[in-house]
Each structure stands twice: as structure tokens, then as C-alpha cells.
């Protein structure tokens, strides 16, 4: 009887809607708190660091001597930042910007805004590094001939996230890449390069290790001097 009641409650739109509303209210209250303490944390960081780095979408991967930011800060060492809105910084404040596995969690237009804001807050000749899943590599998983890297990625995802899958592994892994982890828009080299150009960022180089990694310069006039 108890199990039946629990099953009914799980299917109840009122119960599930109320639970979502409560969780949303908690997030709203936390956001107000994070916004209230943010100016002091930003000011302290800018005053106490010569070389200034901004990490967007920190999660639990804090980077020493950087201003670590996230939409859902895990502690007081991470500053609240909604990357789909104007950043709370003046122009030309940071030497470096770093974002790993974050831009794919927001839609394309929000990604353009984020990159434009990165350009705005970077100093002339500042550097930005973006890492995101590589759509080209993922689509290649469906081919009969795979690279060693693609096969290793396929095996890793199956073992870690889809251990019950024994057939049609490529199909399940591709669906997982698009739908899993809250992904919204996946980039390939060309799309990310174009998004950066739209945001006035000059692409310098890409590395291809199953993710798109782009190193760019905030001011194309100095790109040759800053090439590494």
C-alpha cells in the first residue's frame, strides 16, 4: 500500500510541480545572497592579483590565483556569474579567460553573448581558452572506421555512463552526448571559430583531443606577437 502511494505521489503533477517550485525558490534566495556578496569578492580579487584570470563555469575545479565563477557556486571561493548576461566587470580588466566544458550548456545565441563579454573584459592582447566537446569527433563515432581516440572515448562513455548497453553502442553514446549532462548546443571547429569571429575574438589555434580547444587573442592586431 505504501509503495502504491509513493508511486502515485511521484506521478502527481501537483506534487512534482510543488517540489520544482520549492527548489526554484531556494535557488532564487541563494542567487540573491550570491549577488549581494559578489562585489566585495570581485574587488578583493582585482586589488590583490597582478595577473588577472577569469574562469567561467568553475564547478569544483577551482584554479589558484584566478577569479573562479559559476552559475551555482559551491562555496564562498566561487563568485556567482550568469554567463548569459552582461558580466559584472569593467572593460579590459582580465589578462586571461578560461572556460572548460561550459559553453555547450547554453544555447548558441547565449554563447555568442558570452564570447562577446569575454572580449569586452579582456585586456588588449589578452588570451582566452575555450574547451568544449567536438561535434566532428562525436559524429565520427558512427563510422565503421574509428580512430584510436574515438574508440577509447566510446569505451569510456559506455563503461562510465551506459554499462547496461551491449549493442548499438555508437547510437547510445551519441544520444548521451546530445542529451546528457544538460548539453544544449555542440560545436565543431568551424562553428566555434565563426562564433569567436562574431564576438571579435581572433582564433589562433585548435587542438583536437575529442574536444574543441581554441586559444584566441582579444586583439587581432597583436596576434602574431602572442602566438604560442
How does the major sheet shape up? 7 strands, mixed
- The best one-word shape is flat
Number of extended strands: 7
Instruction: Tell me the radius of gyration.
Output: 21 Å
Order of helices and strands: HHEEEEHEHHHHEE
Q: Roughly what percent helix?
A: 40-55%
Q: Please report the number of helical segments.
A: 7
CATH topology of the domain at 49-134 and 187-222: Rossmann fold
Class by alpha and beta content: alpha/beta
Poorly predicted runs: 220-228
Name the CATH superfamily assignment of the domain at 49-134 and 187-222.
Vaccinia Virus protein VP39
Largest sheet, order of strands side by side? 3-2-1-4-5-7-6
Q: Overall pLDDT, averaged?
A: 86
Distance between the termini: 67 Å
- CATH architect. name of the domain at 49-134 and 187-222: 3-Layer(aba) Sandwich
How would you describe what is shown here?
The chain is α/β, with parallel strands linked by helices and 228 residues long. It has a domain at 49-134 and 187-222: 3-Layer(aba) Sandwich (Rossmann fold). It is 44% helix and 19% strand. The chain has seven helices and seven strands; from the N terminus they run H-H-E-E-E-E-H-E-H-H-H-H-E-E. It has helices spanning 2-11, 13-48, 108-121, 135-140, 148-161, 169-179, 189-198, and strands at residues 53-56, 67-70, 79-80, 94-100, 122-133, 202-208, 211-217. It has a seven-stranded mixed beta sheet. The longest helix has 36 residues, at 13-48. The chain is flat. Mean pLDDT is 86; it is low at 220-228.
